[in-house]
Amino acid sequence: MKVITTIKEMQTEIKQQKSEGKSIGFVPTMGYLHEGHLTLIKQARQENDIVVLSIFVNPLQFGPTEDFSTYPRDFERDRALAECEHVDYIFYPTVNEMYPTEPSVKVIVQARTDVLCGKSRPGHFDGVATVVSKLFHIVMPTRAYFGKKDAQQVAVIEGLVSDLNFPLDVVAVEIVREEDGLAKSSRNVNLLPEEREQAVVLYKSLQEAKKAIDQGEQNPHSLIILMKEMITSNSSGVVDYAEIYSYPQLKPLEKLEGRIIIALAVKFTKVRLIDNLILDIE
Ligand code: PAF
């Protein structure tokens, strides 16, 4: 495994690999790897000749009240984990390498950002789309891997790749869950013991909504009421949002049809959890 810190060297290596006909699987991250990342890496490893992992805490996607400087970092731990997963290259640039001058161009995301988590994070997805565009030009992947847990990010990246014609496939990887159904997250450790037991209600209410759809429910508003009631009566969590949209367009729906997303965010004492379910309605 090679650790590469400059854009030029990364591009030279990739061009060499591509000239030998190798496919490139790319997993972009901000480091501090957890099980979700490892699932992305494992899938990339299975489907490609070469796997590139990027580790870059991107200042552009942090808002003024979100602390870029205290975002957790542990490169040596990440390097060891990547080695275990047989990653070929870690791309690990500095902020100065990625943004040597005040940017003269940035990517503005026009749609899919005014709902769900994007509503409370103005500019966040512009920062994500800008850095991901740069990373795609640097790593030139055949396939890029993103977790469905952050389904809005996947929707934004799919829009970016399609609108700007990046020659690659976006691979959206299933949410990894604990045995009881709670979506895995490094934030789960911040749940109080009784909250950890209650937190499964996010998954259960998504399943309950699916059951209602399977039994013929077509009205998104009724499903939202059902999920909110279930969460508030079975936990001390406060619903931040429970929303249903078309996917990946993230447009409101009057009737359930086509591909949809049911998404939840629930606040507990020290942590806010998100979860979602993407369904195809016949
Ligand atoms: O999901 C993340 O960790 C980041 O948003 C990404 C895609 C690596 C861009 O900085």
From TrEMBL:
Binding residue positions for ATP: 30-37, 147-150, 176, 184-187
E.C. code: 6.3.2.1
Residue sites binding (R)-pantoate per the record: 61, 153
Keyword ATP-binding tagged: yes
Keywords of the record: ATP-binding, Cytoplasm, Ligase, Nucleotide-binding, Pantothenate biosynthesis
Iron among keywords: no
SUPFAM superfamilies according to UniProt: Nucleotidylyl transferase
Residues forming the catalytic site: 37
Alphabetical list of HAMAP family matching this protein: PanC
GO cellular component annotations of the record: cytosol
Gene Ontology process terms (BP): pantothenate biosynthetic process
Protein name in the entry: Pantothenate synthetase
Family membership noted in the UniProt record: Belongs to the pantothenate synthetase family.
Organism field: Neobacillus rhizophilus
Binding site for beta-alanine: 61
Molecular function GO terms recorded: ATP binding; pantoate-beta-alanine ligase activity
Pathway info: Cofactor biosynthesis; (R)-pantothenate biosynthesis; (R)-pantothenate from (R)-pantoate and beta-alanine: step 1/1
Subcellular location(s) of the protein: Cytoplasm
Function: Catalyzes the condensation of pantoate with beta-alanine in an ATP-dependent reaction via a pantoyl-adenylate intermediate.
More about this protein: The reaction proceeds by a bi uni uni bi ping pong mechanism.
Complex and partners: Homodimer.
Catalysed reactions, semicolon-separated: (R)-pantoate + beta-alanine + ATP = (R)-pantothenate + AMP + diphosphate + H(+)
